[in-house]
Amino acid sequence: MVARSAENLKHSGEGLAEMAAWLMATSGVAEPSQIHIAIEVPHGSVVETLIERGFKVHAINRSRWIASATASRWPVPRTTAVTPR
User: End-to-end distance of the chain based on CA atoms, in angstroms?
Assistant: First the structure.
């Protein structure tokens, strides 16, 4: 699925309604509760609109998420070996 950027979103009631309709049409699901949305900002009109319409909204910390995803793919050893001179 292609994500829409904030540049394409009208920051108005009409724009938020269009966003919700776009999410439903693009996903093809029957209920908004079947869509989980990860968003960096846990507040504001976008989040409020999504929650009011029944979408599952999860606030994430992007930096921590990237660090977690990177660590799970390439484990970093907890200790490093020291080579004697």
Answer: 55
CA pair distance 27, 22, nearest whole angstrom:
8
pTM: predicted TM-score of the whole model, two decimal places: 0.65
**39 φ/ψ angles, rounded to the nearest 5 degrees:** -140, 145
Tens-digit pLDDT profile for residues 2-26: 555 556 777 788 999 999 999 999 8
Burial class (CB in 10 A: 0-12, 13-18, 19+), 33: exposed
Nearest to 59 by CA among 72, 76, 40: 40
Percent of the chain whose pLDDT exceeds 70: 72
Q: Where do the domains of the chain lie? A: 30-72
